[in-house]
Structure formats: C-alpha cells, structure tokens
C-alpha cells in the first residue's frame, strides 16, 4: 500500500551558482517538479510513494528516473517519451533566496501525458493522492490529471492539492484562476501560499480565504507564509504556527517539503481524523512540517536539500 501517489511534472531545475573564474553565469542541475518534491520528502521520512508522469527518453529523463529510484519512489507510473524532451526550468534567485522561473516547455514531456497512460493500479493501492495545477496548463496532461483525480476521488482516496501557480506557464491569468479553482472542490487537503490566495480571491484575508476554500468542500486548508510560518484550518480548529529561524539560501522546494512532511504525519489518518483532530495534534504536525520546509532552504536544490527525520527532530529539540 502506498501512503501517497502523485501525478504531475518531473523536471530539471537549473539553479544558479557563483562563478569564481569568470562573469559567465553558471547553473547546477537538480531534480525538480513540485509533485515529485512532495513525494521525495515523504519518502525520505520513510513513507511509501509512487509517481505518475512523463519525462523524455533522454539524458535528463534517465537522470530523473534514477533520482526517483534512489529516493525509493515507485516509477511504475513513469513514462519515458521518445518524441518529446524532458522539461527544463531555470531558477533565478534574489539576494534573499526568493525564486523566479524560466521554463523550456513548448512542449515538455510532462505536458504530453495522456489519460490512457495513467497507472490506475498505483491509485488503487494508495491512501492519499496528490496533484498540482502545473499539469492543468495544457492538453493532454490536463485531461490526464483530471481523469486521475476523479478516479482517485471515486475510489475513496484522500485528495491533496497544491495550486502552485506559475504565471510563466499559463497563457492567461483569468484562465489560470478558473482552472485552479475549478478542480478545487475535488480536494480534501489544499495547501496554498498567501500570494496565491491574493491571486485567486483578490484579497489577503486568511480567515476569509479559508472560508472560501472550505465552502468548496475542502476539509483541511493550509496557508504557507514563507519564513513566518503556516496557518491551518480543519472543520473544528484553526491556528497559526510560527516558522523556525534558519539561514536560508534557496527557497526552492520548501513548500513541497512542508507538505510532504505533513502528509507523512497524516499517512495513517482517515479523512474523518483530518476533519476533527484537535489543536494540540495539529500544532505538533505543523511544527514538524515547518521544520522540514525551513531546513530545505538551507541548501541549494529541492530534493537534494530535503532533511532527514533525525535532522528535523534535532531542530525541534533545540527550539521547542
């Protein structure tokens, strides 16, 4: 039985590095893609995970498949395309470590997953199913993603959704809003950033935004607030849990590590548990997830930067 199966993008993140020799920009190759990052954090903590998606049958694609294998993420749902190249993303970092992206995806292999290629056996044997909105930007992966989510929902899986809005990948902001919000009623768990809430709802009022999301039928809303912390709300309780102070150098994958760690703590919980657990339990879970996200920012890259459970526990021991 898989704790979490995810569908979506698996790609190469090229992260800038300092060039001490010349002024020519240099980039490091790292594995990336938000759904894969979530699985990597979950798997690093000892959870069982599986990935559904498509990469090119090229050097980058083989590298990514090897990364998933090394992370002990099942690749039974990974398709290698001989006709389309692996998607590439160039990450640009500000002095504060905040990111912007340039994508080489016209098309990229992740966009070309078709619904007939979905490994439904993986979904049949999972507890939670996770996806994001990047795979809703283009056909045929949009139809494949919706098909997979609807199948998982129909078969009683807990659905996790991270809108993960990337402006550069959408043709039009209004279309992005409609697509991102249109599928939200299928989700049981939604993780959203403050910036995404402003984009989707036109305001930054957390309580109002949480109510709007919960009114769609969502059981657990998580609002990630960067180095401030995170806010959560289920059907019974809500609260803000502060982040830990760390020396951040690259925020790539921090939100994914947060969500992967949180889903790890929920891997044996039912949907009813998620809807009704009390503040003490959620506080413990959010501290753990915040620690995972914070520690991920102390190294470059997403998957390579994700901390072990021992490292997370050590940070908690020193600060809680």
TrEMBL record:
Gene3D superfamilies attached to this UniProt entry: 3.40.1190.20
PROSITE patterns (alphabetical): PFKB_KINASES_2
Domain Carbohydrate kinase PfkB stretches: 3-307
Coiled coil: none
CDD domains listed in its UniProt record: bac_FRK
Highest taxon, organism lineage: Bacteria
Keyword terms of this UniProt record: ATP-binding, Kinase, Nucleotide-binding, Transferase
InterPro entries: Carboh/pur_kinase_PfkB_CS, PfkB_Carbo_kinase, PfkB_dom, Ribo/fructo_kinase, Ribokinase-like
Gene Ontology biological process terms, A to Z: fructose metabolic process
One annotated GO molecular function: ATP binding
SUPFAM superfamilies noted in UniProt: Ribokinase-like
Nucleotide-binding keyword on record: yes
Family statement: Belongs to the carbohydrate kinase PfkB family.
Protein name: Carbohydrate kinase
Originating organism: Vallitalea pronyensis
């Amino acid at each position: 039985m898989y704790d979490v199966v995810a569908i979506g993008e698996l790609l190469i993140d090229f992260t800038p590095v300092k060039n001490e020799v010349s002024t020519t920009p240099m980039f490091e190759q790292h594995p990336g893609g938000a759904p894969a990052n979530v699985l990597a954090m979950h798997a690093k903590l000892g959870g069982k995970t599986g990935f559904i998606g498509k990469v090119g049958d090229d050097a980058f694609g083989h590298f990514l498949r090897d990364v998933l294998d090394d992370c002990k993420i099942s690749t039974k749902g990974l398709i290698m395309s001989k006709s389309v190249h692996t998607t590439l993303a160039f990450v640009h970092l500000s002095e504060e470590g905040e990111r912007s992206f340039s994508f080489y995806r016209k098309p990229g292999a992740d966009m070309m997953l078709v619904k007939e290629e979905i490994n439904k056996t993986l979904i049949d044997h999972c507890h939670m199913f996770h996806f994001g909105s990047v795979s809703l930007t283009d056909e045929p992966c949009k139809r494949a993603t919706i098909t997979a989510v609807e199948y998982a929902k129909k078969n009683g899986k807990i659905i996790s959704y991270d809108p993960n809005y990337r402006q550069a990948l959408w043709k039009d902001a209004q279309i992005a809003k409609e697509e991102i919000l249109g599928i939200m009623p299928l989700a049981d768990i939604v993780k959203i950033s403050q910036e995404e809430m402003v984009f989707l709802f036109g305001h930054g009022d957390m309580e109002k935004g949480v109510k709007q999301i919960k009114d769609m039928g969502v059981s657990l809303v998580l609002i990630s607030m960067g180095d401030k912390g995170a806010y959560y709300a289920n059907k019974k309780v809500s609260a803000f849990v502060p982040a830990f102070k760390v020396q951040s150098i690259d925020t790539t994958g921090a939100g994914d590590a947060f969500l992967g760690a949180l889903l790890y703590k929920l891997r044996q919980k039912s949907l009813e548990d998620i809807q009704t657990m009390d503040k003490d339990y959620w506080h413990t879970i959010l501290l753990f997830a915040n620690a995972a996200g914070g520690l991920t920012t102390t190294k470059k890259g997403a998957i390579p930067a994700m901390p072990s459970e021992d490292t997370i526990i050590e940070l908690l021991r020193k600060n809680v």
